[in-house]
Amino acid sequence: xxxxxxxxxxxxxVATLLTGGVSAAAAQPQPRKKVFIDQDGAALGxxxxxxxxxxxxxxxxxxxxTVTAGDAWVKAGTAHMLRMLELTGxxxxxxxxxxxxxxxxxxxxxxxxxxxxxEFSYKGAWNPGRYHEPHVVPTPPTGVxxxxxxxxxxxxxxxxxxxxxxxxxxxxxxxxxxxxxxxxGLDPEIASLAKELVLMGAGFNVDGGGNHRIxxxxxxxxxxxxxxxxxxxxxxWRRIVITPVDxxxxxxxxxxxxxxxxxxxxxxxxxxxxxxxxGQNAGYMWDEISVLAFLDxxxxxxxxxxxxxxxxxxGAGYGQTxxxxxxxxxxxxxxxxxxxxxRVATVQWDLNLPKFYDQFVQLMSRTPARR
Amino acid sequence: xHRLLPAVLFPALALAVALLVTxxxxxxxxxxxxxxxxxxLNDDAVALFMLVNSPTVEVLGVTIVPGNSWAEHCTASALxxxxxxxxxDIPVFMGVREPLMGSRQxxxxxxxRLWGRTEVLGAYGRPRATSYLALDREPVIGYPTTTPAAENxxxxxxxxxKAYPNEITxxxxxxxxxxxxAVRKNPEIVPLVKRVYxxxxxxxVPGNSTPAAEFNWWFDPEAARIALxxxxxxxxxxxxxxxxxxxxxxxxYDRIVSxxxxxxxxxxxxxxxxxxxxxxxxxxxxxxxxxxxxxLQPSLATQLVDRYxxxxxxxxxxxxxxxxxxxxxxxxxxxxxxFPAGTQKVxxxxxxxxxxxxxxxxxxxxxxxxxxxx
Lengths: 371, 374
Prior knowledge:
Chain A is of the alpha/beta class. Chain A has a single domain (31-364), classed as Ribonucleoside hydrolase-like (Inosine-uridine Nucleoside N-ribohydrolase, Chain A). Chain A has helices at residues 3-19, 22-27, 46-56, 74-88, 107-117, 154-164, 178-186, 190-193, 220-224, 226-233, 245-248, 255-262, 267-275, 286-295, 353-364; strands spanning 33-40, 60-68, 95-97, 169-173, 196-200, 240-243, 300-310, 321-325, 327-328, 334-335, 344-351. In chain A, β2 (60-68), α4 and β3 (95-97) form a beta-alpha-beta unit. Chain B is α/β, with parallel strands linked by helices. The model of chain B is unreliable at 1-27 (pLDDT under 50). In chain B, α7 (177-185) packs across α9. The longest helix of chain B is centred in the C-terminal third of the chain and has 16 residues, at 263-278. Chain B contains 14 helices and nine strands. The A-B interface holds A 108-109, 111-112, 114-116, 314-315 and B 106-107, 109-111, 113-114, 315-316.
C-alpha cells in the first residue's frame, strides 16, 4: 500500500465516520462505481433499456438520473423514466427533470434548415409523426407512473451529486447535453470534479466511411443541442469516452437476444419482453453499448484518441461532429497542438459482439436484491 | 457647347430652366453603363432617363440584373421604356438570372419565420417568368417589340471597359451580381473602370429589407461584397442613409406633368398620376436617381464621407448588412491595415442639396428626350 492510498483510505474512513455510514462501509468490501445518469426519455427503446442496463449492474451505484429533452420532451421523458424504474424494481433511484429545450436549436431552425438542405431522418421530439406540445404528456405505452421526480432541477441535482463525491462520479450521458451545459454554467468546476464523462453521441465515418442511411456526423444527441455540446465537450473533464454512431450500427436488439431474455423472469428482462416483443423494434443498441463498455472495457476491440467537438455554425453542417487525430502523422508522429478549448476523447470503433450480447442478456436476466 | 443644345432646340422655358439649373458640365463626354433592376418608371428608370437626357453623357447600354423584379420582368421594362422614349438605339443586355448563391425564394418563408418578415421582397415577391415576353401579368406599358442584345451583360461590361479604358462609369443601381461576375471573370478590367456608383447599403441606419440590410445588398450579399471589395479607382455609394430622407411628392410630380408633354412626362402621368389622384399626400423614395444626380452635378453632394465598406455574408439575421468602418481611436485612414483585410475605402453620400437636386431631376425629366428617334 502506498502512502497515497493509505492517506485516501484514512480519509474515506474519516468521511464515513462523519456521515455515520460505518455499517454500510463495512458491508461493502468492493466499492461500487458511482454513476450519475443524464438521459433523454423515449418511452421505448435505447434510452430506457440502457438506463436499465446500468441499474442492473451489481458493480454500479446509480446516484441519480436526470432526464433531458431530446427523443422526447422532458415532461414525457421523466414520466417514461419513472415508469420504467417502477416496473423494473428500481423505483428507489431518484429522478430529476432536466433541461426542457435546447439552448439555441429549435423546431423552427430545423424546419428552416430542412427547407434549404433537405429532410432530417430523425428529429426526436420534433418528429412530425409523433409531435405534441412540450407540456403535454400523452399516455405512455408503458403506462402511467405512480412515482414522482425529485423536487430539484436536473442540473442542480447533477451538481449536487458530483460535488458529494469529488473525483468519484462517472457522468454518463445518453441524451443531448443541455442539462450538462446548464450545470457547467452554474458550476464550471464539476468537469474537473467528476471522475469522467462517458457518453453516447457524435459520429465519424459510419460503416467505415461507406454509404449509410444515417448521416453519421449529424448524430441526433449532439445535433439536438449543438451549442450545449460545444459547452460540454470543451469543459476540462479528466477523461472523455465516446460511443459514436459508428459502433451503434454494428449492433441490434434482435430476436435472438429477445428470445434469450424471454426465458428470464427478471423484471428487467420482462420489461423488454413485454414492450419490445420478438419481431419488433430490432433497433440499434445506441446507448447500451456505452453502458456495457463502461462496465467491461474489454468489450471494445478497437478505439482511438481523437480531438472531438461540434460545428455550431448555422449552415449545412450545423450539429455535425468535427474531429482530428491527436497526433500529426509522420516519422516519428508528434502530438498535435490544438486551441485550448479542444478536448481529447477516447472514441470506440469496434466491439466483441458475442460477448456484448452475452453480457447484456446476463445483466438483464438478473433480479437485483432489494436495497 | 453641349449644354446649349436643349436651349437651341427648345425656346423660352427650356432656356430659362437650363440657365437656372444647368448641371455642372463634366469635362469630357462621359460613357456610362447602367446596371439595373429596371422597373416601370421606378427609380432605376428615372436614373436611366436622367443619364439619357444629359448632354454630356453617352449611355452605352443597360445591363439587367434581378432585384426589384426577376431579370425577365426588368428586361421587358427596360426595352419597352426605351421604345416609348424613342431610344431603342441603347442596347439592353440580360445578365445573371439569379443572385450569386441562387434564389432563396424556395425557403424564404422559413427564413422569415426565423428572422421576421422582409419589408422589401423585390423579385422574391413574384414568380419567375420563363421569358421577358411571358410575365406573370402583362406589363401596364405593354410588352416590348424590340429584343435584348444577344451578348451577356457581364461580357458586355467587360468588352466595353476594354474598348474605352479609363472612360467608363458603372452605375450599379441594383444588386451587384453582374459586376461581381465581371470582376471575378475578367479582373483585368478593374483598373480600367473610371468609377463605380452604387445605390445600396444602409451604412449607419437600419436596413429597409430587414432591420439589418438594405434591399440591393440583401438580395445578393455575396455579390455586393465581391464588388465592394474590388479595388476600383473610385467607388461612390448612395445608401438609404441619405436616400430615405428625401421624398418624391405630388409637388415634384406636378412640376413634371405641367411641363410641355414629352414621352417621359407622359409616362409620369400614366404611372404616377393615378396614385396622386388616389392620395395627394402619397410620397416615395427615389433612391437610384440620387446616384445619377450627384454624378451629373457633383456639387449636389453636400456630405460625402470616407468609409471602408463591407457586407456581412454570414447566413443569419444580419445577412446582407452593410458595415461602414470609420476612423476611430484605433483606426486611421492613414494606416489601411487598421481596417478589415480586403475592404476598400469608398465615398459614402450622407447628404445632398435637396432643392437643387429636385431642380435637376425635374429639368431632366421634362426635357425633350435627347437623341430620340420617333
